[in-house]
Every structure is written in structure tokens, then in C-alpha cells.
Amino acid sequence: MSDPVVVGTDGSAAGSAAVEWAADDAARMRAPLRIVFAADRSPYDIPKFSTREWGDALTRNAERVLAEAEALARKRQPEIEITTRVIEGAPAGR
């Protein structure tokens, strides 16, 4: 099996375009596709506020974004293997 094509998304139009490109690339390479979402919780780590509530909302958002990205990739390239994952930490390039 080939190494996966890995793409990050944040649910934006640019993120969706990246998912489409990565799905096409994975199909060309006959490789699996891994879609990731970087969940950066540090901006919300404020002692006065409950991080649990923020964390739950961030997790739900990450899961929603990944589900939409997976559906987009499956529609574009239905034959490829696709996995999704939430990664804790700041996104690259920040």
C-alpha cells in the first residue's frame, strides 16, 4: 500500500479546494486519502471560562468539517480509501 495523501482543511472554500485536489491526487497515485483538521484550543484556554464547553464546541465543529470534507472527497473520487482525523494543536503556517 502507498503512503497516504494527507490534506488539512478548515472548512473554508480554499480548504475544500485542497480536499478536491488531494482526492484527485490520491486517485492518480492509487493511494489512500487522509483528511485532517487541526484543533487549536489554546486561544480558548482562559481560566474564567469553562474549557469543557469550548472544547465540546470545537470538537463538534471539527467533526462537522471533516464529515463535509469526506463527503466532498467521496463524491469526487468514490473509489479511494478515505480516513479523517482531528489533530490537537495549531495549524501549520500560523
Automatic annotation (TrEMBL):
UniProt domain UspA: residue ranges: 1-92
Full protein name: UspA domain-containing protein
Native source organism of the sequence: Planobispora rosea
InterPro entries according to UniProt: Rossmann-like_a/b/a_fold, UspA
Domain of life the protein comes from: Bacteria
